[in-house]
Amino acid sequence: MIHPLGLIMAAIFAVSMGSLIWWMFRLPQPLSLPVAQARVSVEAIKRILVPTFGTVFAGREVELACRLGEDQKAEISLVYVLEMPRTLSLDAPMPAEEEKGREALGMAKTIVDLHGLPSTMKIIRARVAGQEIARAAAEQDADLIILGMKPGMGLTYESFARNMDILMRKAHCELLIDRLNEEGKA
Q1: Could you list the mean pLDDT of each consecutive 10-residue stretch along the chain, which spans 186 residues?
Q2: H or E segment at 124?
Q3: Domain map of the chain by residue range?
Q4: CATH number belonging to domain 42-179
Q5: 3-class secondary-structure state, position 17
Q6: Nearest by Cα to 104 from 125, 84, 122
């Protein structure tokens, strides 16, 4: 006489083996070489450097970095660049600017923490921000730098353009620029 428990176990075994064999022989959809290379290149991004300034606009870059690095659990390196005037030494105290930097990094870290990604934070003093951002990216072995710009930057556009030129020439990693449209939307 066949025991009902044995019959149930045999049925479960047959279904699980059938499912396993179906899964093993199911071929994934073929990808073209360029598509496969694009997927692999994005998956290779393990460290993302984000210079932040503490504005809602700069928060977009941190959010973008988190979303790009989420699947591969990328480390997000947050830097606040304190551009020092040439009339002061690099180590001159600037308590108000340093506090602004700590607040900006704190806001950025909050965004990264919401995504559950590892992060580092650092305030960097520099004469020219672009050079120090490139140096920080090299020191941290960053795979990607994410920068943002918004329309209507006014006089700060010249500084941004100078720093972008430096980064385009000196950064040894990918550079992603997020530019908002005229209405302030991506």
Answers
A1: 86 93 83 81 89 74 93 94 86 90 92 96 91 94 89 66 88 88 61
A2: strand 119-126
A3: 42-179
A4: 3.40.50.620
A5: helix
A6: 122
